[in-house]
# Entry
Amino acid sequence: MIEVDNISKQFGDKKVLEDVSCVFEQGKINLIIGGSGQGKTVLMKCVVGLFEVDKGRVLYDGRNFSEMSFGERKPIRQEIGMLFQGGALFDSLTVEQNVTFPLSMFTNMSVAEKRDRANFCLQRVNLENVNKLLPSAISGGMKKRVAIARAIAMNPKYLFCDEPNSGLDPKTSILIDELIKEITEEYNITTIINTHDMNTVMSIGEKIIFIYKGKKYWEGSSDDIMHSQNQELNDFVFASRWMKAVKQHF
Amino acid sequence: MFIKSLFYKPEKFSIYVRQVFREMVNLGIGSLWLVALTSAFMGAVITIQSAYNLVNPMVPLWAVGIVARDSIIIEFSPTIIMLVLAGKVGSNIASEIGTMRVTEQIDALEIMGINSSGYLVLPKIIAAIIICPVVVIVSMIIGITGGWIAGDLSGVVPSADYLKGLQNQFLPFNVTFAMIKTVVFAFIITSVPAYHGYYTNGGALEVGQSSTKGVVNSSILILIFDYILTQLILA
# Structure
């Protein structure tokens, strides 16, 4: 479980996050939704420590991450897996080397053990015979799956996904969503997804936090969205004709 | 702060050592052909120009060998070759690290708990400090040889005179001085572009700008430190 307690962040004079508090529950898929430029990526980066918060704190299972030094954060960071928007695979390493990279850095596994673990993780994301390929030789969807394989290689307790479906076709998007859901349930991890893909929201979102103008405007489940009277949330979620039709039908 | 961040305890020492060797191959072996070509022509031009300028009958022809040797050892090999490497290696480092920044690969390292600046930059600096003196010595040998061949082939300085000049009034300290300069310049051509690459913000355009800034600033610093070191050590 990750607790975000009253955090604020500003860049220069611009307040990007203002007194945001929320709880990301273990074993559930927690979604952060909101329009572009509303602060959801900054919120995620504050939670993982890529940005330092100006005020407030972030607690990982009770451990105050915000007040820790770089060295003190290391054990928690090794419990974090993250899927970046573009995959963020290391260009100079093969698919297998990308997956085994955290294992090489933080474990004393033998080469054979690391290879076995990489094969297991790659099979888990339905990838085979790509071990020796460079990231430039695989498709966008495959890159995302390799990034998931790398994220789960260290058996993380917390999985962060920054817009996992961006730039993917609908079929691959659904595949990625299902993978994340399966992995979350299988390993009972705390998963946080930053998205504005409504298909993801409705199909796998268990706890949803809506960020608007740097503040938490709404919190609930995917079912609650259908009945919400929050104007800003409705304007965002039911912006398309198709989603409006879904709500009317519902 | 950037330099300080390089020296946190490495996550795994063996991986850093492997990185240093990989960078030594990239920086040193990968630059050898360019260094060899530049040095050979540089030596040839210095020899022919020196012979052209030494027209006083009081000055013996073998003095061309002394001028070529000392110019190459003291100035041309350590400074000009490091300026050439600042262009080749510097732009490579700045664009590589800059691209890693804008494609979130550096964030990925940070999330894993890896000191990204230490992992990406420190091996490059150590590798350059180790391999650049070797490259510069190779450059000196090729430069002096290039001068010998050019002088002999053009008939401007006969081999016997050139070789006599090379062996005359040789000061071993000149090589030490050249090595001191090379180590300082090696630090500059890796750390300055790495700094610009590491703090790149934006996209492809900014990566290009970081690369340019890295090369320009490291070249300027090389010239400034060339003067400072010469003043401090030789004056």
Notes: Residues 13-234 of chain B form one domain. Chain B has one domain: 13-234. Chain B touches chain A through 17 residues (CB under 8 Å).
